[in-house]
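Handout, page 2. Input:
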Amino acid sequence: EIRNCDWSSDVCSSDLISDTVCVTIEDKSVKINPEFDALGQACQNAVITLPILPSPSKNGITGTWDPVSLSTSVAGNIPYKFTPNDPAQCAKDTTLIFKVIPLPVVGTTTNSTLYHNAVYPGNILGVQPVGSIVSWTNNNTTIGLAASGTGNIPAFTAINIGTEPQVATITVKSANEGCPGTDNTFTITVL
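Output:
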C-alpha cells in the first residue's frame, strides 16, 4: 500500500495501512551555481593587497579555488576555478576571471644631436600592447619642439641661436587601461 508522503521534507506520515514505500526523486542534473562578486582587475606586477578568494560563496557553497590565490605576475584574463567540496551541496564548479592588465612598453629611444636649422625627423614611439596611450614632455622648448604632446614626436626644425649647446630632455610616459608603464627618457641636443 502507499502512504501519504510530505514531499517538502521527505518525511512520511504515520497513517500506515500496511507495507509502505516512500520514494524521493532527486534531479541531480540541476546543480546550484555558487555566487560570487566579480574578481575585478589589476595592473600587471601591481604592488597591492589583492582580495582573498572567498569561501563559502555568497549563497553558502563551500569549496576550494585553483589557483588558491590571486596573482598579478602574468598578464591576461586569468581563470580561477571554484570547486565545491561537498557533493551534498549539489553545486557545480564555477570559473571566475581576474583580468591582469599588461603594462605598456615603449620602444627604444636614442639620444640625438643636431645642428641649428637641421630637421629632426621625428620619433615613432612604438608601444605595446597596441592601443596603449603615449604622451611626452620636453623640458627645453627653445630647441623648436613643443613642451608636450601625445603619440609620436613630430619632425621639427632644430633651433639654437646661442653659442652653447641646447639640451632638451624628452620624457615619454605610457599607459594601458590606466596602468602606467616605465618612463623612458632621451635627449635632443642642438649645437
